[in-house]
Amino acid sequence: MSRSKHFFNRSLRQTRSSRVQPSTFENELKNFDDEIQSIRKTIVQLEEDNDLSIKTPAKRSIKHIKLEPELQIDEPIIPDNFFPIYNKIKEMRKLITTPVDLIGCVEIPALLRLMTKQFKKTGEILDIPVDKINIYKEEMTALEENEIDSFWRYQLLVTLMFSSQTKDEVNYEVMKSLHHHYLKKGYTEGLCIEAILNTSIADIDKLIFKVGFHSRKAAYLVETTKVLHESYADDVPDNINELVKLKGIGNKMGHLILQGAWKQVDGISVDTHMVRLCNIFGWTHNEKNPDNVRKELEKMLINYKELWLEINPVLVGFGQSVCTPTGRRCDLCLLSKINEKNDYLCPAVDKRLLIRINRGVEKLEDRKIRGDLSKLIEYINS
């Protein structure tokens, strides 16, 4: 055998011996595939024989519920007792004269204007006592219709600033004294922006010491007066948003300024008497914030805006003289009379007081009266 042939035969034997034999894993995999095919055939046969087809579960249907829109209430909710009580109070107010009617903040600029005119004519200071104010009512009304100007508006702002935590009687005396002081100082319009700008906070504090929180109000007055001089051409703003930016002026005062100085009724002015009465009558519920009471009343009376101007003096005067914070005069109040339902119109009648009056234990004249209630007493006794 040639050498080359021998080499070829040896290589062939090596190749045959090195050929890869099927592994155990490959055999198992083939067997598994065969089993799968067998199972598939069995399932198909079962489906054909018994109609046991395996179906994909149907998607769960979702029922769409149409949501109804919220009920829209067009008409505001007015308490059932509002108009019966309010109209009865208006009936009583025609028979009584209270401090707010004579020397309320809205009345004071007209009184100061009368004093100014008298001083310009005669050089004498006109002092108008509270019990003599009715004599000047016609003149005051004429002035209010024809002579409202920047001085008038400023004086209204000042008296409103002083009125917080201060009775009308005290506020009037302080405003009258302050006005007289500046007339004597040579300011032709008396209390005015120029006069305050030329007075120190300490001196103003001494001049107004009778009002509540006089030191704080003196500082507020000077600061607000500077703003009016620098930003509003020595006048008072004519919108509530600008007014409440002024130091010492809130919503109650702002709305009274608009009503009394600009003849604009953009909201209801609410004071502490009104807050108390609204809670007593159930028009609001334990609400002590005047601004929240204002919002409730405005919402309630949105269709009765003709009441927005009058409701303040009507309720304030009633709260000053009849339904007072202490010693309520239920004996003089028409709301304490039995109505057709054999009940009291007012939910807070002092029944013990009525019993004492009926038994003669307490007399009408024994209780302090603020304001003139003589016509109301005469009406009750008639």
UniProtKB/TrEMBL annotation:
* SUPFAM superfamilies for the chain: DNA-glycosylase (SSF48150)
Name the Pfam families for this protein: HhH-GPD
Q: Where is this region: Disordered?
A: 1-20
Q: Where is the HhH-GPD domain?
A: 162-321
Give the catalytic activity. 2'-deoxyribonucleotide-(2'-deoxyribose 5'-phosphate)-2'-deoxyribonucleotide-DNA = a 3'-end 2'-deoxyribonucleotide-(2,3-dehydro-2,3-deoxyribose 5'-phosphate)-DNA + a 5'-end 5'-phospho-2'-deoxyribonucleoside-DNA + H(+)
Q: Which Gene3D superfamilies does the entry link to?
A: Helix-hairpin-Helix base-excision DNA repair enzymes (C-terminal), Hypothetical protein, domain 2
Q: Which UniProt keywords apply?
A: DNA damage, DNA repair, Glycosidase, Hydrolase, Lyase
Task: Spell out the family assignment given in the record's similarity comment.
Answer: Belongs to the Nth/MutY family.
Q: What is this protein called?
A: DNA-(apurinic or apyrimidinic site) lyase
